[in-house]
Amino acid sequence: MTGPASPVEPVTDATFEAAVLDADLPVVVDFWAAWCSPCRAVAPVLAELARQYDGRVRVVSVDTDANPRVVADYGIVSIPTLHVFRDGELVDTVVGARPKADLARHFEAAAGGSAAS
C-alpha cells in the first residue's frame, strides 16, 4: 500500500520480475488489499522501515486484488503477507500484521544476509 510520498513502490504482475526477481538489493514485498484493515495498519510501518533501510533493502507492494498472477505464483492466501527476496530467491515470509520491532528484525536480516526467526 502506498501514499503520495511513500517510499514503497507499487509493482504489478507485469513489473514483478524486473522489480523483485532481478533487483540488485534484497526486496521486501508487501502483499495487501485496500479492504484489509491489518494491511492499512502495517503500511505506515513499512514506509518508515523502507526509509530507514533505504539503499540496503527495497520495499515494494502488490495489490492482491489487481495482480492475481503474482498472488497465485507465490500462494498468497492471507494478507498482509511479506515475502523477502534476495538474488531472486524467496528467503523469508511474514504472515499477518506484526509489531514494528518484529518487522525490523526481518528487514535487518534481509539487509545483513541472515534469516530472521
TrEMBL record:
Gene3D superfamilies referenced in this protein's UniProt entry, alphabetically: Glutaredoxin
Domain Thioredoxin per the UniProt entry, residue ranges: 5-112
Active site: C36 (nucleophile), C39 (nucleophile)
Family statement drawn from the similarity comment of this UniProt entry: Belongs to the thioredoxin family.
Site entry: Contributes to redox potential value: S37, P38
Name of the featured protein: Thioredoxin
Listed GO MF terms: protein-disulfide reductase activity
Cystine bridges: C36-C39
Residues under site feature: Deprotonates C-terminal active site Cys: D30
Pfam families: Thioredoxin
